[in-house]
Amino acid sequence: MEYQWGNEQFVFEADGYNLQYRLLPHQLNLHGHCDEGDDVTLGKMTFLPPGGRLLVNPTEEEHSARVLVCRIEDEALTGALAKAWENLRANQPPTIDDPDACHSLHRISLEIMYPRASTALMVEGCLRMALASILRWSLSEPNFMIREVVGGSLLDTELARLESFIDEAEDIIPSAHDLAGELGISASHLRRKFRVTTGLTVHEFVMRRKVAQAQNLLLNSTLSMKSIAYRLGFSSPSTFSIAFHRMVGVSPTHFRQSANR
């Protein structure tokens, strides 16, 4: 689904349990709230119950976004989602920041864009994985302050700082030592914190953001595959293509051609 908004408030009303995952653009500085909630920074994934409303604040510039929208009707799943919503209401709804759920939803979008054998079964399985991850995240999220106090995870500000560092790094793929230096901690300490915070290794996290940048460039620029590969820090077009295919499921060339059909 394509959304467009600008200097007027954008309102999304859910007619069921709705899970939305922003595919593009990768980075978008938006703020909004539910009917009675406080303003929060809206991430890539949002979750609303039946009758819920998401109010996106006006922006100075016109924006558009490509979004995967999942409406869940299965009774067995809606029961779990009702529990997840109760857990989230006391925290910071409607944004969900769980890398496992994001990965599952991204895989659904790829299956829809590039259908293959058993696509329907794969979509259903990925959706169940995403919902299970959201439920687990909602149950553990109230403990986030405890994890930060004991130093077991990265602060939101630290993670955002590293994300910006990765996205702004051209002609290089940052290493754990590079990111640790940005925060002034040891690489081993960063690796432990990264695993607790994101469930990923540093390298996996960096590669996901680089591939997301590649998708944006493939869709919204005329740069060649070679130029994109070197701009993002890959050692060669072939290593770029291998990394892209591993995460997206298709080659960069196929991805661009399919999007332009």
From TrEMBL:
<dbReference type="InterPro" id="IPR009057">
    <property type="entry name" value="Homeodomain-like_sf"/>
</dbReference>
<keyword id="KW-0805">Transcription regulation</keyword>
<dbReference type="GO" id="GO:0003700">
    <property type="term" value="F:DNA-binding transcription factor activity"/>
</dbReference>
<dbReference type="InterPro" id="IPR020449">
    <property type="entry name" value="Tscrpt_reg_AraC-type_HTH"/>
</dbReference>
<dbReference type="GO" id="GO:0043565">
    <property type="term" value="F:sequence-specific DNA binding"/>
</dbReference>
<feature type="domain" description="HTH araC/xylS-type">
    <location>
        <begin position="160"/>
        <end position="258"/>
    </location>
</feature>
<keyword id="KW-0804">Transcription</keyword>
<keyword id="KW-0238">DNA-binding</keyword>
<dbReference type="Pfam" id="PF12833">
    <property type="entry name" value="HTH_18"/>
</dbReference>
<dbReference type="InterPro" id="IPR050204">
    <property type="entry name" value="AraC_XylS_family_regulators"/>
</dbReference>
<dbReference type="InterPro" id="IPR018060">
    <property type="entry name" value="HTH_AraC"/>
</dbReference>
<protein>
    <submittedName>
        <fullName>AraC family transcriptional regulator</fullName>
    </submittedName>
</protein>
